[in-house]
Amino acid sequence: MDLWQLRTFLTVSRVLNFTRAAEELNLSQPAVSHHIKSIERQIGEPVFERSRQGVELTPAGQILVEYAKEIVGVVDDLKQRIDNNRDEIEGIVLIGGVTRSFDVPFVQVQQAFSAVHPDLKMRFRNFMSSEELFQALERSYVDVALFEDKPDEKKFDFVPYGNIKMSLVAGSNHRFAGKSEIDPVLLNYEKWALFEKGDIYRTLVEKVFRHVGIEPKSINETNDGSVILDLLATGNYVSVLGGFDYPRDLKEGLLVELSAPDFDIHLPTFVAWRKENKMPAVDAFVQFFIKHALPGVTPSELVSDNES
Fold it and tell me: Which end of the chain, N or C, is surrounded by fewer C-beta atoms within 10 Å?
């Protein structure tokens, strides 16, 4: 099996959907199916269980995921090290983050970065959770990671990037839209659209709930930010989201920010890299990124001890 087949397999294993994988890889669905069938022929076992409910990894597929990530990661790291080990700052910087399916403005960041470093390419990889992102950085699948959890100081170097302002939001057609301030007691009886337990957004919100004394009667959980935005657009739900998660919806008048006592939440963010990987290309991106604030993020003072 070749690298391209392994990359296809990893994409399908991550999204668990052949159509979405084909779109992400810019391939036809038959091509994706052909890659997977080729892998299955070579290892003599099915790697996916297909049913009406969707696609799931088989035991053989779960084992292959571990090895495929290692193989692809080593090859990517080799290529990047060769590209970056030059006198001029050029090559590829692999950036990882957890976007939660929101429309995060990394295209603008990429364009601005290319204007400053035309010979240095920036590629973004999305991960489903902070834990998955930590593992990707540790195993060299990405060079730089954008975290909302403080990284492990023993494994990574990092700088604080800024603070994400978390706001109480609802659809513009919600009954609370236009009110100057909302009694927190009323929020007990609202339908909430929140991320699943374990997500740092959910952890922060639950901390606020305990502080304010809120016990919502109805919570719709998901790991997909686009689902939350769709629920809010119905006018029947409220949520707490980060400042750069919904700027377009706010600008277009689809969502409104609500005001309620003690709902002033700020989430610190960090830019991290492996201790042994502060190569010129990585350093160029880190220095660029910490000087360019994303919408909804308030830049913070940098910790000089971690900049070296």
Answer: C
Work out the end-to-end distance of the chain between its first and last CA atoms, rounded to an integer number of angstroms.
41
Instruction: Return the C-alpha torsion angle 62, 102, 152, 65, nearest 10.
Output: 10
18 and 55, same domain (yes or no): yes
**Host domain of residue 58:** 1-85
Tokens 């997909």 belong to which residue? 224
What totals of helices (H) and strands (E) does the chain contain, helices first? Answer: 10, 12
Residue 182 tokens read as 């909302």
Answer with the one of 85, 120, 145 that is the final residue of a domain.
85
The domain boundary residue, chosen from 30, 58, 85: 85
Tokens of 155: 């494994």
Six-digit token string for 140: 């060299």
Per residue in 199-222, pLDDT (tens digit) is: 888 988 999 899 889 999 999 999
Q: What is the pLDDT of residues 81-130, one digit of tens each?
A: 666 554 445 678 888 888 776 656 677 777 888 888 888 888 888 887 78
